[in-house]
Specification:
By secondary structure, this protein is mostly helical. Helix content is 63%, strand content 4%. It has a 6-stranded mixed β-sheet, with helices on both faces. A hairpin with a 2-residue loop joins β5 (610-614) and β6 (617-618).
Amino acid sequence: MPMMILHTVSNPSPPKAPTTAFKSNAFQGVESCSTMAELKQLHAQFIKLGLSCDNDAMGRVIKFCALSESGDLNYALKVFDTLPEPDTFIYNTIIRGYLKGQFPESSVPFYSQMLLNSVMPNNFTFPPLIRCCCIANAIGEGKQVHGHVIKFGFGSDGFSRNNLIHMYVNFNCLEEARRVFDRLPVKDDVACTTLISGYAQWGYLNEALSVFGSMPEEKNSVCWNAMIASYVKNDRFYEAFALFQRMRAKGVTIDKFVAASILSACTGLGALKQGEWIHDYIKKSDIYVDPKLATTIIDMYCKCGCLDKAFDFFNGLPVKGISSWNCMIGGFAMHGKGEAAIKLLKEMEREKVVPDYITFVNVLSACSHSGLIEEGKHYFNYMTKTYGIEAGMEHYGCLVDMLGRAGLLEEARRVIEEMPISPDVGVLGALLGACRIHNNLGLGEDIGKKVIELEPHNSGRYVLLANLYANAGRWEDVAKVRKLMNDRGVKKPPGYSMVELGGVVDEFIAGGRTHPQAREIYGKVHEMLDRIRLEGYEAETHEMSEEERENPVYYHSEKLAIGYGLLKTEAGETIRITKNLRVCQDCHQASKLISKVYNREIIVRDRNRFHHFKGGECSCNDYW
């Protein structure tokens, strides 16, 4: 269209070549553009001035279109097609545009076109091209690009090498990633942290630690955080704490990333005092609390049993991201505070924050743990009608769990039968758990067998079915389930409970006697049992617990942790325990009675939820 305007001029004369000063001003105009409308006006001026084939001018136009927030990649491609001899900068810009615009699959064919047109790549070509291969899951093309990195003489370029390490890590090609790393002339922090994180991502902690140990002593916080985060990701929280202490001893500054990682370790261990120390450090050091760190703090307080502190911090946030809202609603859910979760959802809507998929998973979970059946049904339909969120597997799992816990087993079964997607083992497992709660052997036996075949190495599935048989007095079937477990080599995970006292976390396993104060602890446990027997306690001897069967129920890890807590705390202090397995019926009943006879609040976080034991009652209302 602009060329047609030029043709309407009578007796046209060739446009004068613009001066260097004029070009400089015009180019600055491109830099100051904020919209495509402004850019198109400048583009038209460039054409009038005879700059339509000038790579310097058109490169700036293409850069704005391909890379700015208000750009238009299609317009950039149209401009590109008009250039007789685009240079390397322009090709690189389009490749970056494909990366930014999330069209990574187009980058390699475009790069091939670049080579066919005899345009040589440079060190800026390969980093975005490698990232495109990574995002597009194009391992074959990525390896070919790696070959070109070497062929064109950029094998020593740090940016290209670091991106190759990231690509190979992403594809779980760790040997290739290590080869690239080993050939680096200078192993910078980026390369080291990428490889450490990659090893951790795929569960190779020893290899990650080897890379970390090979780094110079003067490691920055990014390197330390990579290793700490690796431990946290693999649930090795004690090692994370030990490394954090080494980091502090070295005088390395704690940034928001390290703070988030170590807070996650506190969450995993239920280490409230440590978590509070980190939070205080964040405040005193004026560390910027971004949405991710805010969510980590909320999660730590929720999962360490301090719901009030979590809510106070949440309310104090000047800006609440969707993840913070979801985390707080999820915190109410795990503590069985269904009405509070719903109230927070309504506040979220009043604040014009649009709930997402995770929001309603947490709301439905809250309804399930609180027995809010009608509210749960309402929000299951509400999320689709109001926000267009289609129910996913997690939503159906919550709905089935909610109906099953309430004893509406047939309704839960119908939900499964009418699901538009095939139910996964989580949905079926929710119904199996409900059958155990309500002793429905008929339905539970059928579901239990299906779940075991779908997840043959999950010991918890066998335990649920065995307990159904035990409650019905079908001991031969209990023996068959145990034999099936043995034949398949299925091992129950060791049951352990952790209690934090004075900033130190002590861990107890069922029947364990390695603690320095084991004799006193067992003496306290025997005292506890004697006192609660006077309140009517009788051990559940027939239940097949997820804790080790060879240890009697009165030596389960939770009881040892409570005994230690009673030994080491003052009268009236709250005892907080974190447990890796679901609380068994016997420990649940015992904990209620212990809270009564010792006049203590005992807060237990098990695999599924929180239990607040106080005055002989539990916050779950025996509904877990």
